[in-house]
Automatic annotation (TrEMBL):
Keyword Manganese listed: yes
Catalytic activity, EC: 3.1.26.4
Entry's cofactor comment: Manganese or magnesium. Binds 1 divalent metal ion per monomer in the absence of substrate. May bind a second metal ion after substrate binding.
Cellular compartments per GO CC: cytoplasm; ribonuclease H2 complex
Similarity-based family: Belongs to the RNase HII family.
Annotated HAMAP family: RNase_HII_B
Organism: Winogradskyella ouciana
Obligatory cofactor(s): Mn(2+); Mg(2+)
Domain (RNase H type-2) ranges: 11-200
Cell compartment(s), UniProt: Cytoplasm
GO BP annotation list: DNA replication, removal of RNA primer; mismatch repair
Catalysed conversion reaction: Endonucleolytic cleavage to 5'-phosphomonoester
Protein name (Swiss-Prot/TrEMBL): Ribonuclease HII
Annotated transmembrane regions: none
Length: 200
């Protein structure tokens, strides 16, 4: 299926998406992207459909060709205090607010969003596999978050975040059981299955 450039007929439509919602550690990261109307790319798709190599290849292309883009991380501590849905939306709002150009329409991947200023918006389920601007935002959110996880991996290598990026893999859960948790873990998440007891 060929992705359309955008959803609305507004000239400056911004796509936004987040990465890292289901992780046990690290931030939730969102990106916002406004693409030019003539933008074309045959590889660009939902970041989950692409190899890491292709995501890394696309990131500089998106950054060079976008009319404007921005990325926002919301920390695990803040996720714990406002919950993951609010943190995801806050990250999206934060990325939109950093755009150098004010969008006149916003398209959001998924089905949950809160109005941003008075700009009209539309939530689109699987939007990152339908529209190029949301797909571009999904690539930036994912690659920036992955880079962040690789950085904090150096601080706590026993959790192997450079590999699992904070997602709940067996290896990650086993490391939590063995070493406990770090300042990057989300304490409001179920970090271990019920048979393990974790004193927080």
């Amino acid at each position: 299926m060929t992705l359309k450039i955008q959803f609305s007929s507004f000239e400056l439509e911004c796509g936004t998406d987040e990465a890292g919602r289901g992780c046990l550690a690290g931030p939730v990261t969102a990106a916002a992207v406004i693409l030019p109307s003539k933008f074309k790319n045959t590889i660009l798709n939902d970041s989950k459909q692409l190899s890491e190599k292709n995501r890394k290849l696309l990131r500089p292309i998106i950054e060079t060709e976008a009319l404007s883009f921005a990325v926002q991380h919301i920390s695990g501590t803040e996720i714990d205090s406002i919950n993951i849905l609010n943190a995801s939306i806050k990250a999206m709002h934060g990325s939109i607010s950093q755009l150098k150009i004010n969008p006149n329409y916003i398209v959001v991947d998924g089905n949950k969003f809160k109005p941003y200023k008075s700009i009209p918006h539309k939530t689109i389920i699987k939007g990152d596999s339908k529209f190029l601007n949301i797909a571009a935002a999904s690539i930036l959110a994912k690659t920036y978050r992955d880079a962040y996880m690789e950085q904090i991996h150096e601080e706590f290598p026993m959790y192997n975040w450079k590999q699992n990026k904070g997602y709940p893999t067996k290896e990650h859960r086993a490391a939590i059981e063995k070493y406990g948790i770090t300042k990057y873990h989300r304490k409001s998440f179920r970090l271990l299955p019920e048979q393990y007891r974790l004193d927080i």
